[in-house]
Here is the input.
Amino acid sequence: MAVKEMYRMLNFADLGDERGKLVVIEGNRDIPFDIARVFYIYGSDPTVVRGQHANRDSEFVLINVAGTSKVRITDGSNEAIVELNKPRQGVYLPKMVWKDMYDFSEDSVLLVLTNTHYNGKEYIRSYEDYLKVMEEGNNG
Ligand code: TYD
Here is the structure.
């Protein structure tokens, strides 16, 4: 997978005015999928590493709506590291990339949007298994 296929930065419009900022994310308009699920991660400190999985079906958009964190993305050969530090900026992650989220600031609230309802079976949580699947090209 080319690095540019592993992730895409998204910059959302600010619809704010003198009363404050407003960011709107519409499925299939501002992000490349229909939103089926929303969750958010907070209360993780800088020593924690979250994620550590690949997903067969889920695509994600991650946004630090408060605070900062980092996302490491790999396909087993290439690697990219993205810093999330603006409520107006997100990162889109396609299916079958391996991701780690870490370096959470104390005030970090990491919002996650995805195209699927939760299904633990579509998660690959062993990096060894992930590498095997990628080598076999059996990731469709
Ligand atoms: P996990 O996938 O480890 O979180 P992260 O990838 O953000 O580090 O999820 C932690 C637990 O929560 C795990 O037991 C599965 C459960 N969970 C759900 O039930 N539904 C969900 O949508 C998510 C993301 C997790």
